[in-house]
Amino acid sequence: MVLEAEGLTKHFPIRQGPVRRRGREALTRRVRSVQAVDDVSLTLRRGRVTALVGESGSGKSTVARLLAQLYPRTAGDIRLHGESVTVKGGRKFRAYCRQVQMIFQDPFASLNPVHTVRYHLTRALKIHGNAGKGDAELEQALNGLLERVQLTPPDRYVDKFPHELSGGQRQRVAIARALGADPEALLADEPVSMLDVSIRLGVLNLLRDLKERLHLAILYITHDIASARYFADDTLVMYAGRMVEGGDSETVTQRPAHPYTQLLIDSAPDPDRLLTDGAGSGTTPRDAGGGEPPSLIDPPPGCRFHPRCPSAMERCKTQSPPRFDVSDGAGHWAACWLYDTDVTAEAAVIAEEIAEVSR
Ligand code: SF4
């Protein structure tokens, strides 16, 4: 295990102001908060890709930014090799920032347009103490990084500016910059969603190759559950700031247990389904809420998915479900009352119906 998060929570305050307090003018006052991430736990292991899947606004990118220490967390614990990381600026914190690197969604925005590839990679190598001694060693390290991300021959790319590269090449430079820190974990926030479809596979294959050769732990954030199945060893599904299902990718994508995961899979483009039921209207038969995600300022009580869930029961409206083991695969779990072992007759019938549809 490399990186572990437990009970990770992030609430963004909504402030209003200016307000007058005892004759003095205060700038703002906190009125409410956006509950972007709530009690999220996950583990990243060496040599494995973990996909974090969910629709826009589900809190996936916030989880990545919390793990990268770009946002302070409201609650929860983050551990690297079992040791909590708390003090910003301390020795442990600096080691954490070296070992956990982030790759952003937009490769053009993440590179400085007025600097060359050489500048970006040299800076990463120097900051993290991997530049070696002297120009020859630095040049060797630069070439090694570019070769590792398959930008060869290095001479052709090292003195180019970001605008002289294609989107896929820019993302490879961003990956090389992250590798300049010699990390153990990569947090890839939708790394291919802004690339042309034709080059997405190449970047995913590069990340998989790096995972195997460098034994990296990778968090792959995506809204595309089909790519999670192709690329990731494990898959976690997030809805409205909470984890709702997890397990190995094959099991989660082939035998989804949570009604939201089933909805995500139903929503993925499928030419066969388009021909048979005319899907593509944006709302699938399993979405009882018209496709609207809930407000995270005032999320629904109980299970946050209950306004959209076709299987919702009375208890779902008031009680938040914990994780339940799903009996069809080792490590497969779902946060859904349908899998409560103390199951009611009503839930047993619905769970059986869902299992039947998924087969
Ligand atoms: Fe649906 Fe209830 Fe399960 Fe939530 S807990 S997904 S509302 S059945």
The portion of residues assigned to helices is: 25-40%
Q: Care to count the β-strands? A: 14
What is the SS-derived class? alpha/beta
Strand content: 15-25%
Order of helices and strands: EEEEEHEEHEHHHHEHEHEEHHHEEH
The kinds of small molecule bound in this structure are: iron/sulfur cluster
What's the layout of helices and strands?
Elements: E1 3-16, E2 19-21, E3 24-26, E4 29-44, E5 49-53, H1 60-67, E6 75-80, E7 83-84, H2 91-99, E8 100-103, H3 107-110, H4 117-127, H5 134-148, H6 167-179, E9 185-189, H7 197-214, E10 217-222, H8 225-231, E11 234-239, E12 242-248, H9 249-254, H10 259-267, H11 271-277, E13 324-325, E14 333-334, H12 345-358
Parallel strand pairs: 5-10, 5-11, 8-9, 9-10
Antiparallel strand pairs: 1-4, 1-6, 2-3, 6-7, 11-12, 12-14, 13-14
Helix pairs in contact: 4-5, 4-6
Residues 258-259, 303, 305-306, 309, 311-313, 316, 321, 336-338 line the site of iron/sulfur cluster (SF4).
Can you walk through the features of this model?
The protein has about 350 residues and is of the alpha/beta class. The protein has twelve helices and 14 strands. The protein has helices at about 60-65, 90-100, 105-110, 115-125, 135-150, 165-180, 195-215, 225-230, 250-255, 260-265, 270-275, 345-359, and strands at about 5-15, 20, 25, 30-45, 50-55, 75-80, 85, 100-105, 185-190, 215-220, 235-240, 240-250, 325, 335. The strands form three sheets. The protein has an eight-stranded mixed β-sheet with strand order 8-9-10-5-11-12-14-13, with helices on both faces. The protein is globular, with a radius of gyration of 23 Å. Residues about 280-285 have low confidence and may be disordered. Bound molecules: iron/sulfur cluster. Iron/sulfur cluster binds next to loops. Iron/sulfur cluster binds near residues 258, 259, 306, 309 and 338.
